Amino acid sequence: MPSPLSADRPAARPPGGGPVDALISQTRRLKGEVDAVRRDTPADAGDPRERWRRALYDLAMHQLDDLDEHLAQLRDDPPSAPAEELPAPPAPPRAALLSRVGSAEWDLLTDEVSWSGELYRILGRDPAAPPLTLDELPSLVCDEDRPRLTGMVTGCLIDGRPIDGEFRVLHAADDIRTVHMMGEPVLGADGSTVSMWAVLRDVSELRRCRRAVSETRDSLHRHRHAAARSEHRLAVELQEAVLPAWHGSLRFPRRGPRALDVAAAHLPPSAHASIGGDWYDALELSDDATLLGVGELTGQGVGAASGVAMLLGAVRGMALAGTAPGPLLDCLDRLLDTTAQPVLAGAVCLRYRHDTRTAVWAQAGHPAPLLYRGRAGRALDAPRGALLGAAPGSAHEQAEETLEVGDLLLLHTDGLVPGHTGTAAVHRLLALAPRFAGGRSARDCVREVVGEFGEGERAEHACVLVARVAS
Known about the structure:
Elements (H helix, E strand, L loop, with lengths): L4 E2 L10 H24 L7 H29 L23 E8 L5 E3 L1 H7 L22 H14 L3 E8 L5 E12 L5 E10 L1 H39 L7 E3 L7 E8 L9 E8 L4 E9 L3 H20 L4 H13 L7 E9 L4 E7 L5 E4 L2 E4 L19 E4 L5 E5 L9 H9 L2 H4 L5 H12 L8 E8 L2
Parallel strand pairs: 1-5
Antiparallel strand pairs: 2-3, 2-6, 4-5, 5-6, 7-8, 8-17, 9-10, 10-11, 11-12, 12-15, 13-14, 13-16, 16-17
């Protein structure tokens, strides 16, 4: 808002028609382009996102219509006709988007008041009636907004502050319109206020459009939040259905002189996060062997959970068919290469033979199993094996380890040790060896891991599986 005007310094006239005509042409061209895009937008009332987009297009069109009208008034600069000579103009339709602008001036020295013809329509007054003084103007305003209008006018007249605010006007038939008022005092030679001018604009449709944008945006946010909650719930249910729900240690095989004591756990992040692609599995096989495995699949949410379901199904099927760990990972690599969405996966698969107490294992870009014997531990020497999906067709080599009664194997996914990866994470896990000693069960050892790494701040999902050679 410019500084207050002086009574002996007339306001500058608007610029000539040439530049304004160019602006009007640009505005109308832009209106046509926006309207064309709006017409191509699907009018799907059931889609919150489409309702929000439609409301934004309506608001943009309203503001462009507004700009077009104001530029036309600036170009034409019509003289104000006396109010009594103006015929009563027809009221525009309620849904019209074009804002209406009127002006007024109150002379404090002569008590003269002049209103433009459009101001009568904006304020719902009969054009034949005299214009209202500043004392009478609040009578048109809704009760709740009168103090705001009185404060704006008083601040302008007494303190010389510009007016810039809104109030609501009650028309006939309980039609409430929102009016935006901008004005300034005109100062005399002695610095006192001699008159006040104002421009008033009907912004009812603009506010309606903005409310529609806000409401549809809020509706879209609620819809997306509800959809996210439903997707998260589905992913959780799918993960719980896929991962073995173990409570306590399991014995593999269930009968026989030589057995593995197996337990596992999934460690979620400390803050709410989407379901990840971490998994673990243990499966009794038909040839006096047990399959142990852990891994992680890229992605989150339902996509990751469904990918884990597919991968675990393939792992179990091939293991039951007698496929060794290396060829099994080779097949998984080819399987992931055929999926519609490219994904990467790391995994460790280990086949333990109970009669010989030997573990044959392979890995695909994954941390090696940790072997604890007595009060010490070490990482097994990893055979070569690329991340699944990273180098389709590459072979995954195997390694073999002979175990003893009391030995303990720990398989885990990345992210098990918060804030540590690679060698640093392995050192932290190997430091648990003294706690694992003494013939403790696999479940006790899993509890030690969860207590050490799962109760503080965690940023990632992780899985841990412990297998102890019980006999």
